[in-house]
């Protein structure tokens, strides 16, 4: 499969998905004009990838903000990962957040509550 | 030609504690630019990051609600007025921040949101979280609005969301919504 690379903008995260390593990463902020339209290609990429790939799958995110539309789409992504996990594949989520932003931690925790995938919530210090 | 008294307008803003105000059509790029400006402004205020993110996210949800409603009206072919034209205001009242938005809405269209707001007012933070998660888990047709925006604002606000309606004519009114952070 081809590599998925989407450049970030003010309102959309940078997305990289390397089929060779099975690592999907997302960083930035997410409040697209139309969340469903923005996330649809990523969801379909992930679904196709999961169908053919049997190695480990890692999802790394460092998102400082998700609007409610993106939150809904993120849930769909996590559900796809959950499905792979329940099918016996090695799946892990590494959710990075700014340690000063307690809201970002709560967001991560609420997602974690919804799935049984190994889900690491990792604080990042923004201090240089 | 009458000259607008900007001094008086600015004085009104000062008296009302208004820090940032935008009135006009909400395009996506305007929301992005204003969002950036809001964040910069709040960073300069040296406030806690949590509060800053709550103000920012409430601002985004409110402006995107206005924008999404305007798009829906355009899709319906309704050209009664410029629905994308709205107003958003961020103010400070004592130690709390207030994020408000206003726009023209059809009286029929706004009914559901008003019912939601009346229902949200009675819920505590724990019940709001439960409701948020229920809506997050609802299966929806592609592109449908999961109705998370108002619940999200209510969760971040320190008091129940406040709204008001001002009659314009038989079919339309001006809807104002305020979240106190």
Give an overview of the whole structure.
The complex is a heterodimer of chains A (128) and B (181). With 128 residues, chain A is an alpha/beta fold. Chain A has a domain at 65-123. Chain A contains 3 helices and 6 strands, in the order E-E-E-H-E-H-E-H-E. Chain A has helices at residues 35-52, 68-86, 102-114, and strands spanning 4-6, 14-18, 23-30, 57-66, 91-98, 119-124. In chain A, strands 1-2-3-4-5-6 form a 6-stranded mixed sheet, with helices on one face. In chain A, strand 4, helix 2 (68-86) and strand 5 (91-98) form a beta-alpha-beta unit. In chain A, helix 1 packs parallel to helix 2. The longest helix of chain A has 19 residues, at 68-86. Chain A is globular, with a radius of gyration of 14 Å. Chain A starts with a strand and ends with a strand. Chain B is α+β, with helices and mostly antiparallel strands and 181 residues long. Chain B has a domain at 6-107 and 158-180: Heat Shock Protein 90, CATH 3.30.565. Chain B is 50% helix and 24% strand. Chain B has helices at residues 6-16, 28-44, 49-75, 107-121, 125-136, 149-156, and strands at residues 18-25, 85-93, 96-106, 162-167, 172-180. A 5-stranded antiparallel sheet of chain B has the order 1-2-3-5-4. In chain B, a hairpin with a 2-residue loop joins strand 2 (85-93) and strand 3 (96-106). In chain B, helix 3 (49-75) runs antiparallel to helix 6 and helix 5 (125-136) packs antiparallel against helix 6 (149-156). The radius of gyration of chain B is 17 Å and the shape is globular.
């Amino acid at each position: 499969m081809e590599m998925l690379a989407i450049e970030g903008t003010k309102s959309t995260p940078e997305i990289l998905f390397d089929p060779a390593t099975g690592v999907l990463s997302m960083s930035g902020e997410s409040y697209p004009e139309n969340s469903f339209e923005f996330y649809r290609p990523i969801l379909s990429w992930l679904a196709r990838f999961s169908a053919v790939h049997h190695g480990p799958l890692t999802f790394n995110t460092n998102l400082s903000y998700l609007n409610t539309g993106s939150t809904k789409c993120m849930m769909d992504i996590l559900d796809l990962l959950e499905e792979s996990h329940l099918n016996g594949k090695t799946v892990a989520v590494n959710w990075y957040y700014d340690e000063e932003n307690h809201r970002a931690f709560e967001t991560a925790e609420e997602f974690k509550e919804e799935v049984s995938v190994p889900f690491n919530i990792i604080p990042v210090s923004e201090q240089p | 030609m009458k000259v607008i008294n900007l001094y008086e307008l600015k004085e009104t803003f000062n008296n009302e504690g208004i820090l940032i105000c935008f009135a006009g059509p909400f395009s996506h790029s305007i929301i992005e630019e204003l969002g950036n400006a809001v964040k910069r402004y709040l960073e300069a205020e040296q406030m806690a990051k949590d509060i800053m993110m709550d103000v920012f996210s409430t601002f985004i949800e409110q402006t995107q609600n206005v924008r999404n409603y305007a798009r829906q009206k355009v899709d319906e072919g309704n050209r009664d007025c410029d629905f994308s034209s709205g107003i958003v205001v961020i103010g400070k009242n004592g130690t709390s921040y207030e994020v408000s938005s206003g726009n023209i809405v059809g009286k029929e269209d706004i009914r559901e949101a008003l019912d939601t707001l009346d229902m949200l007012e009675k819920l505590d933070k724990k019940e709001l979280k439960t409701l948020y998660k229920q809506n997050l888990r609802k299966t929806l047709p592609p592109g449908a609005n999961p109705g998370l925006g108002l619940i999200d604002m209510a969760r971040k606000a320190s008091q129940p969301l406040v709204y008001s309606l001002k009659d314009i004519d038989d079919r339309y009114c001006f809807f104002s919504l305020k979240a106190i952070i």
